[in-house]
Amino acid sequence: MNNPRILVLGASGFIGGWVTKALLQQGHTNVRVGVRTPNYLTCLEHLSTEVACCDIMDRDSLDSALNDVQVVVNCTRDSSDNGVTVEGTKRLLDASTRSGVKRLIYLSSIAVYGDASGHVTEETPAVGQLNKYGMEKRVAEELCRSASNTSLERVIVRPSLVYGPSGEEWTERFVRGIRSGRLKQTRSANGVANLIYAGDLGDFVAHLSTTSLPSFSVFNANGADRPTFNEYFQMLSSAMGLGELPHATRIDLAKRELRRRLRQGGRLSLRATRPTLSRLKDSNILLQRTVASVEQALKFDIGDEPCSSYSRVVHYSNHQAASIGFIPRTSLIEGVQASMASILVEPTPDLG
Q: 305 falls in which pLDDT band (50, 70, 90)?
């Protein structure tokens, strides 16, 4: 395809924003960004793109956004449990067929492998119980795989842990944990941190938008470096100017586990009483403020994760991506430095 019109759905999100930027940097001039409302345009206003207000769950707006589009990149994420991952994928496949789209690139996740360890390729089956996110991604992938419209090329991308400027999940929450003293080095954090810089992922998706591919393909997308989580946390600490990240003592670990259990119990209690509180707080401003304060205090943070979250030794193979000419080019130290420059020098909009 020569300079196709490309629609990026979820373009105002963290990954969608980087994909959009990569497409423009690689010379694509027919890029259309799909956002749910104009309020999401803040982080895209400086980019030379066409804008389409589009909700993947709304047929009319989706059909309109797909008009005269040859390639669609689905970076949407279900942040409110409203069915975007599965039902949204189904609706996008149907709409792409109606509109004559040639290629659909779906951003999935390594979560579809569950607890797999060792060397993981695109053919590795899921191991253990998938979490809700991984299960929904797996179902969405299967919808793409089994789509009856064979003229629509479907490309599945399974990114590893995507970090970088404005990255909340694998960058900024760790930075807050280090600053607060809740994130320290532990023996259980010597698992492999499979990290890919957001800019490299964007470049890979842009590469996939025009390279020759079969009717259905699946690619892992991983970075070049293989640090342990402790090494990654130490890199962040050093880049923040905080020096050596302390090692957690037994007392630290005991306190962390007690705090984690108490906060988990608090969230469960709040969830159980929410229906009653919702009825009462509508007419009581003080109660509204109190409930909001408690919810904020119990909001999930880095200290609520079990230490075992960072213990798995696994490597997600990039062989398939390399076979079509993609090599990640951002070293971990370069990516960490770029992330810290974003956080410490100029406040950036939260893209996701």
A: confident
